[in-house]
Amino acid sequence: MSNGQYRQVWRIVLRNFLNSFKPRQIQGNNIGKDYIGNVYYEIPADPSRGKRKPSRWYDPPKGLDFQDPIPAEWEAWLRMRRNEPPTEEEVAKNLAIAEMKKVNAAKIEEQRLIDGGSLPAPAEKGHESFPTYSEYHPGDPTNKYRNK
Q1: What are the strands of the beta sheet with 39-43, ordered from one edge?
Q2: What is the Cα–Cα distance from 108 to 142, expressed in whole angstroms?
Q3: Which residues contact 44 (CB under 8 A, 6 or more apart)?
Protein backbone atom coordinates (compact mmCIF):
# COMPACT_ATOMS: atom_id res chain seq x y z
CA MET A 1 0.00 0.00 0.00
CA SER A 2 2.95 2.34 0.18
CA ASN A 3 3.43 2.51 -3.56
CA GLY A 4 3.27 5.72 -5.66
CA GLN A 5 -0.34 6.86 -5.86
CA TYR A 6 -1.19 6.24 -2.19
CA ARG A 7 1.98 7.97 -1.04
CA GLN A 8 0.82 11.15 -2.83
CA VAL A 9 -2.56 11.05 -1.08
CA TRP A 10 -0.96 10.94 2.36
CA ARG A 11 1.33 13.79 1.40
CA ILE A 12 -1.67 15.91 0.36
CA VAL A 13 -3.54 15.06 3.56
CA LEU A 14 -0.54 15.94 5.71
CA ARG A 15 0.05 19.22 3.84
CA ASN A 16 -3.62 20.24 4.22
CA PHE A 17 -3.52 19.34 7.92
CA LEU A 18 -0.44 21.48 8.50
CA ASN A 19 -1.90 24.36 6.45
CA SER A 20 -4.99 24.31 8.65
CA PHE A 21 -2.86 25.64 11.53
CA LYS A 22 -1.68 28.69 9.60
CA PRO A 23 -3.36 31.93 10.65
CA ARG A 24 -6.17 33.10 8.42
CA GLN A 25 -7.36 36.58 7.66
CA ILE A 26 -10.32 37.20 9.95
CA GLN A 27 -10.55 40.95 9.50
CA GLY A 28 -11.98 41.92 6.15
CA ASN A 29 -10.90 44.80 3.97
CA ASN A 30 -13.24 47.76 4.30
CA ILE A 31 -14.73 48.20 0.82
CA GLY A 32 -17.25 50.98 1.31
CA LYS A 33 -20.24 52.46 3.07
CA ASP A 34 -23.74 53.20 1.76
CA TYR A 35 -26.12 56.07 2.50
CA ILE A 36 -27.95 54.00 5.16
CA GLY A 37 -24.74 53.51 7.13
CA ASN A 38 -23.99 49.86 6.31
CA VAL A 39 -20.28 49.09 6.11
CA TYR A 40 -19.19 46.47 3.57
CA TYR A 41 -16.21 44.13 3.90
CA GLU A 42 -14.41 41.60 1.73
CA ILE A 43 -11.72 38.98 2.13
CA PRO A 44 -10.36 38.50 -1.41
CA ALA A 45 -10.03 35.12 -3.06
CA ASP A 46 -6.70 33.34 -2.69
CA PRO A 47 -6.49 30.43 -5.16
CA SER A 48 -3.03 29.44 -3.87
CA ARG A 49 -4.65 28.51 -0.53
CA GLY A 50 -7.72 26.89 -2.08
CA LYS A 51 -10.07 29.86 -1.64
CA ARG A 52 -11.72 30.39 -5.01
CA LYS A 53 -14.34 33.01 -4.10
CA PRO A 54 -14.05 36.11 -1.98
CA SER A 55 -15.98 36.36 1.29
CA ARG A 56 -18.26 39.39 1.44
CA TRP A 57 -20.49 40.71 4.22
CA TYR A 58 -21.76 43.90 5.79
CA ASP A 59 -22.37 45.35 9.23
CA PRO A 60 -25.51 47.45 9.73
CA PRO A 61 -25.33 50.61 11.82
CA LYS A 62 -26.28 50.50 15.48
CA GLY A 63 -30.03 50.30 16.00
CA LEU A 64 -30.68 48.58 12.68
CA ASP A 65 -30.61 44.87 12.01
CA PHE A 66 -30.00 42.64 9.02
CA GLN A 67 -33.72 42.56 8.13
CA ASP A 68 -33.65 46.14 6.86
CA PRO A 69 -33.27 46.56 3.09
CA ILE A 70 -29.94 47.45 1.54
CA PRO A 71 -29.35 49.20 -1.79
CA ALA A 72 -29.75 46.90 -4.79
CA GLU A 73 -26.26 47.69 -6.10
CA TRP A 74 -24.63 46.60 -2.85
CA GLU A 75 -26.80 43.49 -2.64
CA ALA A 76 -25.68 42.50 -6.14
CA TRP A 77 -22.06 42.92 -5.03
CA LEU A 78 -22.64 40.85 -1.88
CA ARG A 79 -24.23 38.02 -3.89
CA MET A 80 -21.33 37.98 -6.38
CA ARG A 81 -23.50 39.20 -9.29
CA ARG A 82 -21.01 41.99 -9.86
CA ASN A 83 -17.26 41.98 -9.35
CA GLU A 84 -16.67 45.63 -8.51
CA PRO A 85 -18.42 47.41 -5.64
CA PRO A 86 -20.79 50.20 -6.68
CA THR A 87 -19.64 53.79 -6.67
CA GLU A 88 -21.34 56.50 -4.64
CA GLU A 89 -22.37 58.24 -7.88
CA GLU A 90 -24.04 55.08 -9.19
CA VAL A 91 -26.02 54.55 -5.98
CA ALA A 92 -27.02 58.25 -5.84
CA LYS A 93 -28.15 58.19 -9.49
CA ASN A 94 -30.31 55.09 -8.99
CA LEU A 95 -31.75 56.52 -5.76
CA ALA A 96 -32.68 59.74 -7.62
CA ILE A 97 -34.40 57.69 -10.36
CA ALA A 98 -36.38 55.76 -7.73
CA GLU A 99 -37.47 59.00 -6.04
CA MET A 100 -38.50 60.47 -9.41
CA LYS A 101 -40.62 57.37 -10.11
CA LYS A 102 -42.33 57.72 -6.73
CA VAL A 103 -43.14 61.38 -7.44
CA ASN A 104 -44.45 60.56 -10.92
CA ALA A 105 -46.60 57.71 -9.57
CA ALA A 106 -48.06 60.06 -6.94
CA LYS A 107 -48.91 62.62 -9.67
CA ILE A 108 -50.59 59.95 -11.81
CA GLU A 109 -52.59 58.70 -8.83
CA GLU A 110 -53.66 62.23 -7.94
CA GLN A 111 -54.78 62.88 -11.53
CA ARG A 112 -56.71 59.60 -11.58
CA LEU A 113 -58.59 60.58 -8.42
CA ILE A 114 -59.33 64.07 -9.81
CA ASP A 115 -60.76 62.51 -12.99
CA GLY A 116 -63.11 60.42 -10.85
CA GLY A 117 -61.38 57.16 -11.61
CA SER A 118 -61.74 54.19 -9.39
CA LEU A 119 -59.55 51.25 -8.71
CA PRO A 120 -59.65 48.55 -11.33
CA ALA A 121 -62.18 45.80 -10.68
CA PRO A 122 -60.76 42.40 -9.82
CA ALA A 123 -60.52 40.10 -12.78
CA GLU A 124 -63.18 37.48 -13.25
CA LYS A 125 -62.08 33.91 -12.82
CA GLY A 126 -63.08 30.81 -14.65
CA HIS A 127 -63.91 30.02 -18.24
CA GLU A 128 -66.57 32.75 -18.39
CA SER A 129 -63.84 35.42 -18.24
CA PHE A 130 -62.37 34.40 -21.62
CA PRO A 131 -63.61 36.31 -24.69
CA THR A 132 -66.05 34.66 -27.07
CA TYR A 133 -66.13 35.27 -30.80
CA SER A 134 -69.00 34.50 -33.17
CA GLU A 135 -66.72 33.13 -35.89
CA TYR A 136 -65.06 30.62 -33.56
CA HIS A 137 -66.94 27.69 -32.07
CA PRO A 138 -65.73 25.90 -28.97
CA GLY A 139 -64.79 22.28 -29.34
CA ASP A 140 -64.62 20.24 -32.51
CA PRO A 141 -66.54 21.96 -35.37
CA THR A 142 -67.05 18.64 -37.15
CA ASN A 143 -68.89 17.16 -34.18
CA LYS A 144 -72.45 16.47 -35.39
CA TYR A 145 -73.74 16.23 -31.78
CA ARG A 146 -72.66 19.78 -30.97
CA ASN A 147 -75.40 22.11 -29.73
CA LYS A 148 -76.14 24.85 -32.20
Answers
A1: 29-33, 39-43, 55-59
A2: 51
A3: 29, 54
Coil, helix or strand at residue 59 = strand
Neighbours of 36 (CB within 10 A): 14
H or E element that contains 43: strand 39-43
Q: Tell me: the pLDDT tens digits for 34-49? A: 988 899 999 888 888 7
pLDDT band for position 114 (cuts 50, 70, 90): confident
The pTM assigned to this predicted structure is 0.57
Residue 105 identity: A
Cα–Cα distance measured from residue 82 to residue 88, given in angstroms and rounded to the nearest whole number: 15
